[in-house]
Amino acid sequence: MSGKQLEGKTIAFLATDGFEQVELTEPWQAVQAAGGEPRLISLNTGKIQGVHHDQKGDEFSVDQTVDEVNATDFQGLVLPGGVFNPDALRLSVNAVNFVREFFKEGIPVAAICHGPWMLVEADVVDERMVTSWPSVKTDLINAGANWVNQECVCDNGLVTSRKPDDLPAFCAKMVEEFAEGIHSGQTV
Question: What is the mean pLDDT of residues 93-99?
């Protein structure tokens, strides 16, 4: 994943405390390697705490809050997992609306592990093929998604994966979809 296929593109990473660190850092590095500019968006200013499964990870500086941005400021969105991260984010009306806005605009979105919980809350998975961490499967199915147990699934600009082991495939497909740009079939 080298080259400049994301040159001039800014990619939002929406996260808060309790995100699975590798599910943010590896996609972040993939965006940078492809010439894009990643931006960390969160609920509050300051720093957020990553985790390595159930152990504390590093802290990361927030670039902007969800109150300060719009989906149209970006050319893609990444939703890392971790159990606590999407569970906290889905309680924020502004964070949920921010995610939904990407779908309204047809801007590609990539979600991994527990990250698809935000897709359920944003009501954007009906009749879409997706994957996730197994414990999120029922929530996705109940929201109308067609859940499959595959390493990486892409449905009209929506890229989903199950777990950190899937990151190589997830990152490659994510960069490809962000480079393609607007996906009119993604709009809700």
Answer: 98
